[in-house]
Amino acid sequence: MGICRSILIVLAALLLLPGSALPAQRNACLICHRPHHAEQGNCVGCHRGNDRTNRREIAHHDLIVGRFAHFTLKGSPIVVRGKELLEVLACRRCHVYEKKGNRLATDLAMLARSVGPQAIFDSIRSPVLLMPNFHLDDGQLAALVNAILGETESAGAGAPETARVVHFEAGKRAEENVFVKQCGPCHKLLSERFGGLGNGDIGPNLSGLLSEYYPNTYRDTEPWTTGKLMKWLENPRNMRANARMKPVRLAIGDFVLLMQTIRINLEVYTEKEVMNVP
Question: For residues 142 and 77, what is the distance between their CA atoms, to the nearest angstrom?
C-alpha cells in the first residue's frame, strides 16, 4: 500500500511540473535521416508520414519524398519552374489550375487529395489515352508535381470536385463523327460533347483548341478562332509556308458539326453564324 501511494505521489508531481521540464517527444525520423530546413518545423510538416515511430512501414505511410516536397518551401524555384511549365505546356486546355482552365479533365487542385505524388509523376511520364506526351525529363516532371501539390495545399479543403464522365467513343457513332473522319488519323481531341476522339499522334493534340487556354500557334504567334481555323483548313500552307498538313475541304454543314465537336462551353452554330465569325 505504501509503495502504491509513493508511485501516485511521484506521478502527481510529474503532472504538476511545467511543460518545459517534461522531456520532448522524440522525433523518430532523425534516427535514419539528417535534419535539414529546421526552420520549417518538424519533419511531417513537409514530408507527412509519422515521426512518432521507428517502424518504417508506419513512419513512411503517405510519405512525400524530398524531390516532391519543395512546394512546402516559400518561394521555391522548383515550384516556380513547375508553374512556368504548366503555362508552356498549356495544361489549362484540359485542366483547371488556380481556378482557371477548361474542365475536360481533373481539377489539378483536387488531384493530390486522392493521388500520391509518385502516381502523378508517373501519369505525366506515361500519359493516359488522349493526354499529350510531353517527353519531359525527371527534373521537369518533379517541378510539375510540386506545382500541382502547391496548388492543392493553397486550395484548402474546399468542396469536392463534381464527377465528370469522359466517353471514349467506339463503334459507328465515333466512325461517323466529322472530326474522326477528317482529323482523327493525325490528331486526338478530348471534347466536351463527344468525349475522346481520334487516335493520331502525327499532329498536335487539339483538346481545347478554340479556347483561351490553347497555345497561340496560328501563324506561330496568334490565338485560334473559328474563322482562322476555317482559313487554315482551306490551305495550311497559305498560313504557314512549311506546313505539312494537306488542305481539308469541308462543306459548310460539316464545318458546323466540327465546331460543335471542338468548342468548349458548347454553342449551337448555324451556317449563317459560322460564315460570319472572325
Answer: 12
Q: How many whole angstroms separate alpha carbon 188 and alpha carbon 207?
A: 7
Please count the other Cβ atoms lying within 10 Å of the Cβ belonging to residue 273. 13
The arrangement of secondary structure in 70-155, i.e. its CATH architecture, is Orthogonal Bundle (1.10)
β-pairing, 195-197 vs 189-191, is antiparallel
Distance (Å, whole) CA 5 – CA 53: 33
Write out residues in the chain with pLDDT < 70, as ranges: 1-26, 28, 30-31, 35-41, 43-46, 48-51, 56, 58-62, 155-175, 265-278
What's the rounded Cα separation, in Å, for the pair 61 and 57? 6
Encode pLDDT of 113-161 as tens digits. Answer: 888 899 999 999 999 888 999 999 999 999 999 999 998 877 655 555 5
Report the C-alpha gap between 159 and 175 in whole angstroms: 38
Summarize pLDDT for 176-194 with one digit per residue, the tens.
789 999 999 999 999 988 8
* The model's pTM: 0.76
Please report, for the chain, the start and end positions of each structural domain, with discontinuous segments joined by +: 70-155, 172-275
- 226: nearest Cα among 193, 196, 253, 262: 262
Q: Where are the alpha helices (DSSP H) in the chain?
A: 2-16, 44-47, 56-59, 77-88, 108-111, 117-125, 138-155, 172-175, 178-182, 226-234, 236-239, 252-262, 271-275
pLDDT of residue 20: 42
Radius of gyration of the chain (CA): 27
Q: Which residues contact 69 (CB under 8 A, 6 or more apart)?
A: 46, 47, 146
Three-class SS state of 189: strand
Q: What is the pLDDT of residue 91?
A: 95
| Overall CATH class of domain 172-275 | mainly alpha
What is d(CA 3, CA 6) in angstroms, rounded to the nearest whole number? 5
